[in-house]
Structures are given as C-alpha cells and as structure tokens.
Write the structure tokens for this entry.
Amino acid sequence: MPANDAQRAGRFAPSPTGPLHFGSLVAALASCCDARARGARWLVRIEDVDLPRSVPGATDDILRTLVRYGFAWDGPVVRQSERTPRYEAALARLVDAGHAYPCACTRRELESAPLGPGGERIYPGTCRNGVPAGRAGRRQRAFRVRVGDADVSFVDRLQGPQRQRLADEVGDFVVKRADGLFAYQLAVVVDDAQQRVTDVVRGADLLASTPRQIHLARLLGCAVPTYLHVPIATDRDGQKLSKQTQAPALPEDPLPALLAAWRFLDQPMPPDAPRDVASFWRHAIAAWAAKRLPPVPMLPAPSLAFA
C-alpha cells in the first residue's frame, strides 16, 4: 500500500570526497523541500562506502555546511562505512539464491567488451557459469549480480517514462569489488530499504543507474521508492560540477547561494526578498512545486557557482 505523508521519507546522501558545492546544494535543496513540503521525514546519509576516496574531515565539513545553510534532518546521520555487516548479509542472500556469483575478471580484460548506450562496458558473462580455469588461481574476486532478461521500466517524476534492458546496456554488474569494498549499487538499495526511504530525489546523472537499483531491490524483496531526478549543474565547459572538475566549495554566506539554487530549479520566487536563511526556508517549503522543475538532465550553473 502507498505510504501516507507521515510515513514518507526522502534523503540527501553526499559522498565525503570534498566540500559541498553548488551542484550538491541543488540536490540537497530539492530533496529537502520535496520531503518537507509534504510533511515527510528527511534524512542525511554519508555515502563513504568507497573509503579510499573519502577525504579526512570532509564529513564534518559537510554537516557543518548543511547546518549553516539551514538544513535540518530527522534522526541520526547514517554512515555507510559503519554498515558493512548489512551489505554482507544482503550479498549472502543474493549468492544463496543464485542471483550473484564471484568474478575473477580484471578491468584490463574487460577493455575489449562492447560499450553500452551510457558508455559503460557491457559485461560479457565470462564468469557467469563459473570462473574459467585460467583465472581460477586469482585470489581477488568481485561479485556480480545476474541480470538475465530483466527489462526494467519506471516513471521518473520529472524525467518521465524510463526503460532499460539491463543485458543490453550494462550486463551483470558488480555489487562487491575485488578489493573487498561494496559497490554503490548494493549499498544504496540496502540503506534506502533499512531507512524506509520512499522518495529519492537526486541528480539526473544517476538516472541511468536506477534500473540496476530497482532490479536489486526486487531480488532482495525491498520496496522500490519513487524517483525524481533533477537537472545537474554544469560548468562553463558543459561538465558536471563535481570535486573532480574542481567545483569550488559553497560560500560562507548561505542566502545568495540558496536563492541561486532556488532559481536554478525554476521555483517561484518570494514576493519580497528573504532577509535571512530562516525566511528563505519558510518560503521554500511552502512554495515548493515539483511540477515546475526543468525536465532536462543538465543546466548551466549560475556564475555564483564558480566564485
């Protein structure tokens, strides 16, 4: 049965690879307003499952920035690095049911695999029926989930109907890496299910990975949330704002950045300019209109994002 508003929950799940930037603010603002406008819970989760990429001190900096910008979340902050036993249990269930298997292929060996529409290598199934004898001596093994003939369809609340035949676009995909770290795809499904997240609002760069998450959720018997993928902010070269593209950290003064993100999302501006962060949030939660969001995957960031 559908959840009522009091049972619904959204979340913001940044990775601690550096400070929050304008693109992060857009995702956080959309997620928070979408939840709060309906009286739903809003959660914060630190997605540090990829420990080698985590920057010391980044988590504390992210949380301080969110507070300074007026974000308030429900319950404790969840950290993926503390949840390994839950991911191990989920993987064990998949393996026991025959849905996942060990893979000894290296990245170099997969370089000749065909590219899917999204630019990812389509796994050719080398280890699907057992690790070949020539690779059996390798100690490190990844784990992959079988996609079979899965044809996943869903309707994104902004981007509209989506469909992906997993075998044609990604093939059997990794849920635990050969270095022992769990992949984002599995961790996010386990976490959303455990936290009872009903509505995922995030950047459109994650739209293509959503069918994999829906496939995993179904295999694990988890409820599938609704999805709303907002436009990602791009730099002057058309690249996504990110730590990798050296997007600057959010400014100390939150109000101009909040208003710029609000305009970026094409939301109704207040009749009078907000005097402070508190007045901005009162307007934002009351005025949030998901139907006004630009139904595109990316938009140029305002000049403020490069300050």
Summary: The longest helix spans residues 22-36. The chain has two domains: 5-82+231-306, 97-196+205-224. The mean pLDDT is 94. The helical segments are 22-36, 58-68, 84-96, 166-169, 184-194, 210-220, 254-264, 277-287.
